[in-house]
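Archive transcription. Copying these from loose printouts into the bound notebook so they stop getting lost. Printout 1 of 2:
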Amino acid sequence: MANSLAPSASQRWHKWVEEHPVGGLALIGVIATQLGTYFGYCFNAIGLPQLPWPAYNGALIAGAAGDKGASWGNPIAQYFTGQSMHFVNGIVFCILFGVIAHKAIPVANHVLKGLIYGVIMTIISIGFLVPYAYAPKQGYGLFSFDTPNGWKLPAGVLLWHLIYGAVIGLLYQPKDNK
């Protein structure tokens, strides 16, 4: 029979994250990025465009390095380079959430904080990254719905970031900062 005084798995997790603030946020960033990435690859099952961010990041890096004669054209190297950049971004943005945004977002619910952070990241992604880095001069932008995917790309990017933000909010719940 289990000891009823033993902490639950959730309590142990949150205590571990509290005791390892940077490592905990980094691990949460990996988990949230992986879950968001998985669902991004499956979005076409619900009528949204697939969002293979690792492939996009790899193509972005390959385009920048390809002009210098590097061997970035290799699809395997391109994928793993993009995957690495994608996870570094996920970890860095999770740490920024824990260090800056979690304290600055004026709501008490941790998951809601994560969702708000996801909306902010969507605005940055659709308003800047997609139109200027990933798909320049293709008509994409914050309110540009006359693109090949219309409203579906912004909706997919929003859903992706809401998944990421919800996971962060579920897993990062410091006691000192409601």
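Printout 2 of 2:
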Amino acid sequence: MTPGLKVVINYKKHLENVIESILHKNGLSFLLVFSPSNIFYVTGSDAPSALVISQNGEVSALVTRLEYVRAVSEMRLGEAYAFTKQDEVSEYEKTIKGDLYEAIAQVVGSSEKIGIVGGSLELKDQLKGKLNRELADYTKEFYLLRRSKDDEEVRLMEQASRIAEQALRRAIDLIEPGVTESELAGEILRVIVSSGAEPSFPPIVAFGEHSAHPHAKPSLKKLMRGDLVKIDLGAKYQGYCSDMTRTFVYGDPSEKQKKIYRAVLRAQEASIDAVKEGAKAKDIHMIAYNVLKEEGLSAYFNHGLGHGVGIDIHEEPYLNSQSETELIVGDVVTIEPGVYLAGYGGVRIEDMLLVQRGTSRTLTFFTKDIAL
């Protein structure tokens, strides 16, 4: 895929899935949708504060005046309304008088069966009081729809992966004794942004003993020969994220470094082989854990094996020892075992995979050689 290529997401299909699977199935008159990612999934914009979706497919996006113009520009379906208590507004604004809760009440009227997706407990309490009725929560059902990525969503995530891989290659080209973690992180950000994307999270660049911090923040620490170099990065392209981690050694790796690296790589390869439709997230995590246990390193694997990726960098499903989730076709998940030895260093290797029937497809392809 070439940089800048525009992929058209079928937001209408997303909306139809929401209406059929949630509103029609449960006999709802309206569904209230909160959180920027959920709103983006339906409309193509994260500017609105809330969506009100009716059973006949009408979408009312309620937006602050501050974000109104952006919402109108970005939204691929629905009608935007600025909610405001001000009397003086511009000629181009469609408005509803009142705060967000009052605006929602005006849109839904006296309808009884209303569902909600997302939103804090405080927000739900406020709505319950304003509407004077119970709101059934369908957040889990909505997230299940988001989990199954369609072809266009996958293409955007592949493009995000290619941009991140380009950024990692450019950062590696700058590696020399004395370069700092922050300098490499800065180059990663420069390449991602200049490619028409944004970082899906602040990049992690960690040298030597600093690499033992799973979520290390780049510092002015300088690179030395023999250091482990851990780089975790991702791009967000047209609203969809990528995520990848590679660990290298600058110079000749020691036997201890090679032992840890090989163990983590073997744990990743074994768990990748198990990723497919119907596989239990917990079982895939335990495959990696047991490989590291055989190597005497499981005590230093201190996080879940992976997570879903999509509009959010961390979303359902989560692959850990407590999860009861089964993978479905269209899930995009990370597989990222790690070993972290405080005061010495850490190794993590991470790839994104698309879950398919009977197998999976890798979406990240950067080399996994240990030596730079």
